[in-house]
Design brief:
This protein is α+β, with helices and mostly antiparallel strands. It is built from 14 helices and 22 strands. The protein folds into two domains: 288 residues, Vaccinia Virus protein VP39 (Rossmann fold); 64 residues, Nuclear Transport Factor 2, Chain: A (Roll), CATH 3.10.450.720. Helix 4 packs parallel to helix 5. It is globular. The two termini are 31 Å apart.
């Protein structure tokens, strides 16, 4: 990998005699790491019968000895685990240290979903997570990954930070993994070195400050901001933290770390910040700081009163076929969007009308399914949800070959004796989705936009 000359000069000035070790680390293999989904019962991965190495700062994070064929692992598509860079899992330490009761949390720049799925796993029970992505194409990838993770207490939105900032004091926690120059990803994406420049660093630093300004009003007084980047320079990191403290009156908060993690402290100023360098920690470049907004009076953001038409609008009855789909249906409220039925858990119910009024919502709670005449077609989100009542459907566990056929949206033959109607298809006990069994054949209901598109299958397929 050929590093830009200006990057070498600037980073050498930051690291001094450590730079040679840092540069050598950028030529080494990229560590492979995952987080398992404990709420789906995913066990810790093993290597030849022995447990895989743990990611020290993440309770569900593991390093893998080699890179599996994730595209051809049905458990990956089932949301049994998420592939995430290890350093960025440090977010868990900030959340567990400062979030001890249910909160409303905003993941501001959330695609593709690594930090959102991590937040869904470690926020206190009863919390609401709003995951936002400003770029439309990436927001759909985010919604897919949130659905696969299966946590119902989530809303996915596609809005500009400025629009979210108008929701005065709505959130207790804002996580802002801001767009950056990406220096910490050089090893993973060697082509990105050609896009780096000093001018782009300055551009990203200014954009990050604007994003924080735009969203600041939506954070409650006394609320927590977690700011992170995947870059090394001080302009996007320490200098922006200093700016937030000086201009917005925030307080930088310490996060306990273990010595063996080899986390680096500030390279400028003395605010508590946390940096990951690939020559010291087993992961890519990452920077994180936790900040507390100053206390003050909270303003209640009110929903506009409903119009007469909406007040008197009849709500369709819940289809009989839908009533047994969830393990605890009393914890959810129905929300119809035409013929599509969503079930909103309590944390979502409280703010859904407000969010719907001001934001563009891609998904919320669980999409249970869709009515078509007298038929109710269960949705893929239901199959992947941790709130699914498996006893509501006959179940067939597919071997690897049939699971891949299903995920490619190819034709399937189900075993003799399989009941007619909607069947829950699983692999190793993990739900993948639904098929409609007609007796002599089965209709594959896997979403067209999610299917495995490649026709190539590696000669050696490695799965978890």
């Amino acid at each position: 990998m050929a590093l830009p000359v200006d990057f070498i000069t600037r980073t050498r000035a930051l690291l001094g005699e450590e730079f040679e070790r840092f540069e050598a680390a950028l030529q080494a293999d990229v560590p492979v790491s995952i987080r398992i989904n404990e709420k789906k019962g995913m066990p810790a991965p093993a290597n030849g019968g022995s447990p895989c190495a743990r990611v020290g700062w993440c309770s569900t994070g593991y390093y893998l000895p080699e890179r599996p064929s994730f595209t051809f692992d049905p458990l990956f598509h089932a949301g049994a685990y998420y592939v995430q860079e290890a350093s960025s899992m440090f977010l868990e330490q900030a959340i567990r240290r400062y979030v001890t009761a249910p909160v409303r949390c905003l993941d501001l720049c959330a695609a593709p979903g690594g930090k959102s799925t991590h937040l869904a796993a470690c926020l206190p029970e009863g919390s609401l997570l709003v995951s936002n992505e400003v770029i439309r194409s990436r927001s759909h990838i985010l919604a897919e990954n949130i659905a696969k993770w299966g946590c119902p207490d989530c809303v996915v939105t596609n809005n500009d930070p400025e629009e979210l900032g108008r929701l005065t004091h709505l959130f207790d926690v804002v996580v802002a993994d801001v767009p950056c120059s990406g220096e910490g990803m050089f090893r993973k994406d060697t082509d990105s070195t050609g896009e780096w420049s000093v001018a782009n660093v300055a551009l990203c630093a200014g954009r990050s400050r604007r994003i924080i300004h735009d969203i600041w009003n939506a954070l409650k007084p006394g609320g927590l901001l977690v700011y992170s980047t995947c870059t090394y320079n001080t302009e996007e990191d320490e200098e922006n933290i200093h700016y937030i403290i000086e201009e917005l009156g925030a307080e930088a908060l310490p996060i306990p770390v273990e010595d063996e993690w080899q986390v680096t402290g500030p390279l400028k100023y003395t605010h508590p910040v946390y940096r990951f360098f690939p020559h010291k920690t087993r992961g890519e470049g990452f920077f994180l700081a936790a900040l507390r907004k100053a206390d003050g009076e909270t303003e209640e953001f009110r929903l506009k009163s409903k119009g007469k038409k909406e007040k008197g609008k009849a709500v369709p009855a819940l289809p009989e076929a839908a009533k047994s789909c969830l393990t605890d249906p009393a914890a959810f409220a129905p929300e119809w969007d035409g013929s599509r039925l969503r079930m909103l858990p309590r944390p979502v119910q409280e703010v859904y009308p407000l969010l719907r009024e001001h934001l563009y919502i891609l998904s919320a709670g669980i999409c249970l399914g869709e009515t078509k005449g007298k038929d109710f077609i269960p949705a893929e989100e239901l199959a992947l949800s941790t709130a699914l009542n498996r006893e509501a459907f006959p179940m067939v566990d597919l071997d690897w070959e049939d699971a891949i056929r299903y995920l490619k949206k190819e034709a399937l033959s189900l075993p003799d004796g399989t009941a007619k109607g909607y069947v829950l298809l699983c692999h190793k006990g993990f739900p993948l989705g639904f098929a409609k069994h007609l007796g002599n054949r089965a209709n594959n209901l896997y979403p067209q936009e999610w299917r495995i598109r490649t026709g190539y299958v590696p000669e050696r397929v490695i799965t978890l």
